[in-house]
Design brief:
Rossmann fold; six-stranded mixed β-sheet
């Protein structure tokens, strides 16, 4: 495994000796979405942690919910490794640095092992495993299959010979007989070991709804679910066998940092972050980027707090405002304080669910719930995704956070719809080069220092985001001080 310094003005590639390795690691992949990757990844993590091991969790691809469950199981942040959103160097540096001090590192893939953005599998889980030089633990949903599983496993081996397919976990196994036949077939026709067989469960361990799993922050039974998954891993997975096939992670030099350090601020600032059961979608890298640029983060609850505290900036991430619409609507004093702060010039950056919250209303089951009302937009909810996948935008019009001509990569995933909006395309600041955006191929609503968009950004792919956010917050604080 080779670790590379994070990109910077004088970045050099460095190869680290094996004596400096600090952890063993593996990529957990599946043949498709829904194969059981999360059950295995979270189960292994929870079991190892309960055995006293330090586990560094990672999630490949744009995802908050799976990452949240991994974070809860590991008791430490789950970082994102997304080769589409940020560079090879940044992905590798993040993995090396954030595995430091751990005993084990686990990377949960997304979709199928070879599924990527292109027909050649660009940005796939397999490509990430090759990039990080890590072995793969393949999870196979065995529903209504026996010997065919061996053919699928062998197909993966021959499809990409450079990939280290180190073991197989059988999932959704119905009977001991089925397990026996599949295990014998896999071990007869391939050189890969079966390292576990998880039986078919009568009920979902993870609570489910329209976007997949319910975030752990919203689920009252998170602790119980983690205990069940840890027990499942201990009972049905050869955990010593999994550990024996894991690859070595090389330690990055002590001077390395996950990303280039931000400028030191002469003016200390406070940026509020709304973090509750309605708004949970934040990459830890984004929050850490703001802190590296000198911001003190203030956690805020839009469901319970009466009003905003005194701030120099406000960050409202994505989440599920629709499931908390009644409580958000009832907390009128908080909504009014957000609108008043916006009118006073407070820089506010809102993504997806945050965008919805700043609208006028949301309609759910024919009932209207009032929102903050900064933007005159009425939202609804569809049963089908309205935008899903990676996106790219370019800033075409004035806005408080990005200069004209600025281009960034992000991702979208929403079920919300635009029911009513009386604006024009010219009112939207961002042109979508890829993705759906807010409407008509554009994204980015602007009102004073408020910027709201459907696109989620990752700070390591767009380091300018934290720079612009903190500078705008400093400007607001200075202007307010001079005006007082």
């Amino acid at each position: 495994m080779i670790c590379i310094e994070a990109p910077g003005p004088t970045t050099e590639k460095k190869t680290i000796t094996m004596s400096e390795s600090t952890a063993r690691a593996i990529v957990v992949a599946g043949l498709s979405g829904g194969s059981g990757k999360s059950i295995i990844s979270v189960g292994l993590t929870a079991a190892w942690v309960r055995a006293g091991r330090k586990v560094a969790p990672f999630k490949k691809g744009p995802d908050y919910i799976d990452a949240g469950w991994l974070q809860s199981a590991a008791g430490r942040p789950c970082y994102n490794l997304d080769p589409f959103l940020f560079s090879v160097e940044a992905v590798t540096a993040s993995f090396c640095n954030r595995s430091a001090g751990a005993d084990l590192a686990i990377v949960e893939g997304n979709r199928g092992l070879f599924d990527g953005v292109t027909a050649r599998g660009g940005y796939s889980t397999a490509e990430l495993a090759l990039q990080l030089d890590l072995p793969v633990l393949l999870v196979v949903n065995c529903t209504k299959m026996t010997r065919t599983v061996a053919a699928l496993v062998q197909g993966c081996i021959t499809f990409e010979p450079k990939l280290k397919l180190a073991g197989v976990i059988l999932n959704q196994v119905a009977t001991p007989r089925q397990e026996k036949i599949i295990t014998e077939a896999v071990q007869h026709y391939t050189d890969t070991k079966v390292l576990g067989a998880v039986p078919r469960m009568k009920t979902d361990i993870f609570p489910m709804r329209h976007l997949g799993m319910v975030p752990y922050q919203e689920y009252d039974g998170t602790g119980e679910a983690l205990e069940i998954l840890a027990g499942l891993a201990r009972e049905h997975i050869d955990m010593d066998g999994v550990e024996s096939v894991m690859g070595m992670v090389q330690a990055a030099p002590a001077s390395n940092e996950p990303v280039k350090r931000g400028e030191q601020l002469a003016t200390p600032i406070k940026i509020g972050v709304i973090q509750d059961t309605a708004f949970q979608f934040y990459y830890p890298e984004n929050l850490e980027a703001l802190q590296r640029h000198g911001a003190e983060l203030v956690s805020i609850n839009a469901l319970e707090d009466e009003r905003l505290p005194e701030l120099d900036g406000l960050y409202i991430g994505g989440g599920f405002p629709e499931t908390s619409a009644a409580r958000l609507a009832e907390n009128s004093s908080f909504r009014q304080s957000v609108k008043a702060a916006a009118a006073a010039g407070l820089p506010i950056y809102a993504e997806c669910g945050g965008l919805i919250y700043l609208g006028r209303e949301i309609i759910i089951d024919d009932r209207r719930y009032p929102l903050v009302g900064i933007f005159d937009v009425v939202f609804g909810m569809s049963k089908k995704p309205q935008a899903h996948g990676y996106s790219i935008f370019t800033a075409e019009r004035d806005n408080p956070f990005y200069p004209k001509g600025f281009t960034a990569k992000g991702h979208e995933f929403r079920y919300s719809t635009i029911v009513e909006w009386h604006g024009q395309r010219q009112d939207l600041a961002l042109k979508m080069q890829r993705g759906t955006g807010f409407l008509h191929g554009y994204d980015g609503l602007v009102s004073g220092n408020v910027f709201a968009l459907y696109t989620h950004l990752h700070a390591e792919g767009t380091p300018e985001w934290a720079q612009h956010f903190t500078r705008k917050s400093i400007q607001y604080k200075n202007d307010r001080r001079l005006g007082s």
